[in-house]
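As a warm-up, study this chain.
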Amino acid sequence: MNQRVQHKLYSTNMLPKEEHEELYYQLALTMVPGIGAKTGRLLLEHFGSAAEIFRLPLKQLKNVDGIGEVRAKGFRDDEVMRRAEKELTFLIKNNVQSLYHNNNYPQRLTYCSDAPLLLFYKGNANLNTERIVAIVGTRKNTDYGQQLTEELIEGLCQVDNLLVVSGLALGIDAIAHKKSVAAGIANVGVLGHGLDRIYPFTHQALAKQMVDNGGVLTEFPSGTLPDRSNFPMRNRIVAGMSDVTVVVESNISGGALITAKMAASYNRDVTAYPGRVNDSRSAGCNELIRTNMAAMITKPDDLLQMMGWSDKKKKAVQKQLFINFTPDEQKIIDLLQSKDTVHSDELFHHTGLPNSLLAATLLQLEMQGLIKTLPGKHYRMS
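Now compare it with the structure written out below.
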């Protein structure tokens, strides 16, 4: 008869087991060789908790689809468990939040198939606020790029419940963060390394300021170096947690273009500022606009109008008093009344309606003049 496996924290005198046990196993799950985010989510959906997965008998674990004997042995690797406890100690000591598809996890990311299983966050901003805009661009910005970025942040000051996201890199990223801090706008930097360091080093003071009204976020555990391969992975989080990505300046092969293309693949809005045709640092933006991957903007109001953020909230309560909605329509109306704009992905997950029925219901509500379709598959009350 198989016995269920019982793991122990290696230093239980330091860590209260009851409080941190599930997090301990969550960390360990992300460290098992060959187990990525998709497989990890499937395991969690099937077994209910990370702790339960690690307690399964080896024979049962290796028979799970996609695991096999080699991967199953990783769940018994003492080094995996030691690394998990080391990271748990780091999180507790440094007051770092672990976001694990719970209420604090960026919900927009959950609609992305390649979303990280676990995120580490130090800060106080609401990662699920009503409006999130990513501002990205070249590390070698021009004065033109700096001016556009600062004007954009100034224009965003009039928007309530807004979060600015970028990558805390040199150039446009740093300008967006610095201007947001100065303007009192919550902003979050997504890192390509662990939270035991800040890269580039010159942004340490800026990162501390951001934590007071925003924060720093990463999927990488402590000890992870800012290797070049990590930054495209970082970029998908920037794109996936945002409603819209704004590219200020970028060359034809810049990291900002990777972020923009990822955002487009997630059905998120993408905008770009045009530049001179012979300026290499605007070549990427011009190409995004030329290929219709990005909408052209020339001033902050263009972005606000495109996203429906320039209008004050409109209450449709009186309209509802005179209409008998079907149960499916009521689900949609309730969600749209709670927010300025809602993406079709969120409507799909919130209502549970099949895509064909959801589309038909949205069309019916739009024909009645009750809702309005916005660019990028967003909807709001009329």
